[in-house]
Amino acid sequence: MADIAAASGVIGRALSRTTERNEARTAWLLSLPAIVLVFLFILLPVAAVIWLGFTDFELGYAGFKFVGFQNYAELLTDRTFKRSLWNTSVYTAIVTPISIFMALGLAMLIEAEGIGRSFFRTAYFLPVASLLVAMATVWQYLFHPTIGPINAMLSQIGVEGPNWLGASSTVLYGLSIIGIWQSVGFNLVLFLAGLTAIPRELYAAAEVDGARSGWDRFRLVTWPMLGPTTLFVTTISIINSVKVFETVKTLTEGGPNKASEVLLFTIYQEGFVYLRVGYASAMTVVFLAILVVLMFLQYRIQDRQVHYS
Question: What predicted TM-score, i.e. pTM, was given to this entire model?
Fold first, then answer.
C-alpha cells in the first residue's frame, strides 16, 4: 500500500508539473500578439530614436556617421531648445494643477446634483471628443484683440484686453487657457468614476464621528479615498501637458519670437522642416527622459498616499 501511495504521489506531481507547463505555454501564446505589438511599435521605435540620436542623419542624404554625444552637447548651447524647455515647463505648471482642481470641483458639484447629471457630464466631455485643430478657428475668434468676446467682456469691467495670441507676454497664457479647456472634461470623467466608487457608508460613519461639515467630509473621506484616482489623473495630465503640440502648430507656429515654442514643436521643426533627424532624435530622447523622471518623482511622492493598510 505504501508503494502504491508513493507511486500515486509521483504521478500526481508529474501531472501537476505538466499542467503548469501547459498553462504557461498557453499564457505565452495568448500574450504573444501583445508582446509582438509592444516590441514593434514601442520598444523598437524607442531603440531606433536612441540610436539615431548619436548620428548626424539627415533626411535626403544617403550617408550618415556616428557622432557620439555631439548632438547632446549642441543641445546645451541651443537657445531655441532652452526656450522651448522653459515654455513647456511653464505651460505644464499652469495647465496641470488648474485642470485637476477644476475637474475635481466640477465632479463634486455634478455628483451632488441629481438633476441633469448626464447632461453636464456630456457637456464637459465635449472638448475632449472635439478635434482641437478644427476648434482653432473658434479660439482665434475668442482671443481676437479687437472683435473677440473675451476682450469684449474684459472691456465691460474696465480692463483693456491684451493681444492674447499675438504678444510674447500673453501667448503662453492664452494657450494654457485652451489646454485647461481641453483637459478638464477628461479629468472630470475620471474623478466622477472615483467619486462613484466611494462607499456611502464612510460618510455616515464620518458624520457619527463628528465630521459634520462638508469640508470635514471632504478632508477625511473624499480626498483620501480619491488618492488612486488623483495619482492617475495627475500622471495623465502631466503627460498631456508636456506633449502639447496641436495648439502651438495650429495657432501660433511657436511665435511670436518663439514665446510659445514648446518641446514637441521644436522636435517637429528640427526633424521635418530642417530634416535634422539625428538632432531631433537627441531632443526626443531628452523629452522622454524628462517624462520618465517626472513620473518617477511623482510616484515616489504620491504613491505613498494612495495605499491604505
Answer: 0.86
